[in-house]
Write a structure and sequence with these properties.
With 148 residues, this protein is α+β, with helices and mostly antiparallel strands. It is built from four helices and three strands. Strand 1 and strand 2 form a beta hairpin. Helix 1 packs antiparallel against helix 2.
Length: 148
């Protein structure tokens, strides 16, 4: 007789076991890709290169370079706008790389899953982690992804 809530023999049926193995493999791949992304740097510029900002895959600004001619005490607002534009551009590069990683992992498909792969990696991870099936399998995705 099967244990209450379990399967005869204590094991999982073949399809569930395969699903669990696939989910674990996918989890490992996502963790590897996230680690690779975190180690990359993305640089963007504004004002014809007068302002340059570098951001890592953790969405942290790691470097800001300013040409001397853009530093005008009489026009601080322009400098602020250029810095903001460069930072936003670099952050968009990180987001695009994150989406490309997710697309490579999923083979570009978005339908038929309990969440939408076209959302950012953070939102997908959050949705997966909150899925009862994912929790039941004892899986979780890295929490290092920025939340939206």
């Amino acid at each position: 007789m099967a244990k209450r809530g379990g399967f005869p023999g204590g094991g999982m049926p073949g399809n569930m076991n395969n699903l669990m193995k696939q989910a674990q493999k996918m989890q490992r791949q996502m963790e590897e890709q996230q680690k690779e992304l975190e180690e990359k740097e993305f640089t963007a510029s504004a004002g014809g290169g007068a302002v340059e900002v570098t951001v890592n895959g953790k969405y942290e600004v790691t470097k800001v370079s300013l040409d001397e001619e853009v530093v005008d005490p009489e026009d601080v607002e322009m400098l602020e706008d250029l810095v903001m534009a460069a930072v936003n551009s670099a952050l968009r590069q990180v987001e695009e790389a994150s989406k490309a990683n997710m697309s490579r992992l999923t083979g570009g498909f978005g339908g038929g899953l309990p969440f939408c792969w076209s959302t950012t990696a953070a939102k997908s991870a959050s949705l997966l982690n909150s899925s009862p099936c994912f929790r039941e399998l004892g899986l979780s995705l890295p929490s290092a992804w920025p939340s939206i």
